[in-house]
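All the exercises in this workshop are built on plain-text protein records. A learned vocabulary of local backbone shapes supplies the integers on the structure line. Once this layout is familiar, the rest of the handout is easier to follow. An example says more than a description, so a record of this kind follows:
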Amino acid sequence: MYRFLQLIGSPSEIGRYLASMLQRVKSPFRSSSWEHDLAFLAECAAIIRHTHSALWYELASFADAFDAPAERSLFLRAAALPQACSAVAWQHSSGQVFVGRNYDFYINMPTRDLLATHSSYGYKHIGMNGGLVGGRYDGINEHGLFVGLHKVMADRQEHLQPGVPFHLLPRLALDLCTSTAEVISLFRELPQLSSFNYTVADRHGRFARLECYPGQPIGVLEADTLLATTNHFNHPDLSPLQGRRPLSDSKAREAFLCAAVGHEYGDPWLQTAQTMSDHQIPLCCHKEFSSTLWSGLYELTQQRVAYSFGAPCQVGYRELEF
């Protein structure tokens, strides 16, 4: 169920390799009508081509291997949307910058790939993909930049304008950016298709929570020293868009993360690991429809990275060569 894939080469080489390793699957969830509207997807594709043309050729090469229109590559493997994900970024008194990130979703989610990418058209990075071609759900690049996504269950827009799919935004950032400030500038230029939060942290200890909703300017909440992100909007311009949905669980996880690393004790790497393995709220989940499928630990200053393929309380973290 968990795989480690190395992506090396040109856009067409990586696209064809992914096509040889992946199988098309249908989403078990109701998809939006625009995901099958080729004219709409063509306008979305134009945004990708303008922003990062090489990534578009990678996606198109994948689609070509399946005899699918290139535009369908934007959602060719729409397996599922993440529902409950947590992340904390904090700077230790030593100056080191740490990030912990749990990805929680339906336990039967079929695709869980760790991708090490050394392409000819973007910064080297390592990160996870949950089933949507070309995307990254979290990861770190060679400049010590971390980006991770978090689904927000907000009200749906009745009329949607073309934009960038949620899973490609972290990929664009990891490929093109070296700092939190650069990611903020990039996201401000790109129209959004979905309601998501994004955790951004760099090795200099600059953190941002980017809150995105279709048709709205992104909400930027910057922080020094400590930042936690879960699955609700905090920005005053966006929080009304969540309607009457319960937010207590998401807010409890956010508060717990801030408290857990708000004071230092012992080894900060182990402190972050213990935080992401905690069951008090819980951060580490074991429910059928909210299970921790993977967890990542990152030290951005020295580009140290480890992943737990499953609940970290049971599996533990495996440190990887960047």
